[in-house]
Amino acid sequence: LSEKKLFFNDFPNIKYDDFKLVAKEMVSQGVKVIFIDSYEYLFEITNESVSSMKEHYIKKYKALARQLNITIILNVSLSDSSKNKEPAISDFKNNMYLSRLADMILFIQIEDKYIDNDYIFSKLIIAKNYLGPAETPVYLMLNSRTFKIEKLPGL
Q1: DSSP secondary-structure letter at 19?
Q2: Contact 31, 4 (CB under 8 A)
Q3: Is pLDDT of 50 > 80?
Q4: If DSSP codes are grouped into helix, strand and coil, which group holds residue 73?
Q5: pLDDT at residue 14 above 60?
Q6: Are strands 71-74 and 33-36 parallel, antiparallel or unpaired?
Q7: How far is residue 145's CA from residue 21's CA, in Å, rounded to a whole number?
Q8: Quick one: how many helices (H) and strands (E) in the chain?
């Protein structure tokens, strides 16, 4: 990451049309991946039902990614009820359209017992992959000092 150009845009509650303009500018600067940290702030208030409105906007973001030939990674927090078990697509509950519309669904599971001063150990679970089956889970180690992520050997 230290050798990559990173752009941070932290506009709160950005409207889709404004995001589209920012995304086009970022792509013109060479950006290939856009991370959206908070799924909950993507939506504009409309007269539609909340579920259909959210699905409508997710479809718009997916179409934009295809139009710009980029990857958009959307961070979605799961409910606290899924804390003590391995995450699964069924944890989306009220947002099942996400599992239908997403090309890939990845979960990163971190348990407190796997955190020490220098490293955070986690499990990457590939729950959906449009490219076909993948080796899962993958065990990862994050060096909390350098932020370098490594695959744990032998697991």
Answers
A1: H
A2: no
A3: no
A4: strand
A5: yes
A6: parallel
A7: 35
A8: 3, 6
Strand, coil or helix: 59: helix
- The tokens of 125 are what? 């679970």
pLDDT(67) > 90 = yes
123-142 average pLDDT score:
83
| Residue 114 CA: distances (Å) to CA of 29, 56, 76, 78, 98 | 38, 39, 22, 20, 29
Question: What residues pair up with 129 in beta bridges, in sequence order?
Answer: 104
Contacts 24+ apart (CB under 8 A), 72-80: 72/33, 72/34, 72/36, 73/33, 73/34, 73/35, 73/36, 74/36, 74/39, 74/42, 74/102, 75/35, 75/36, 75/37, 75/38, 75/39, 76/39, 77/39, 77/40
Q: What contacts 24+ positions apart, CB below 8 Å, involve 4-10?
A: 5/29, 5/30, 5/31, 7/31
**Are the C-beta atoms of 104 and 79 separated by less than 8 Å?**
no
∠71-81-42 over CA atoms, to 5°? Answer: 35
- pTM (predicted TM-score): 0.77
Residue spans of alpha helices (H) in the chain: 16-28, 50-68, 96-101
**83 pLDDT tier (thresholds 50, 70, 90):** low
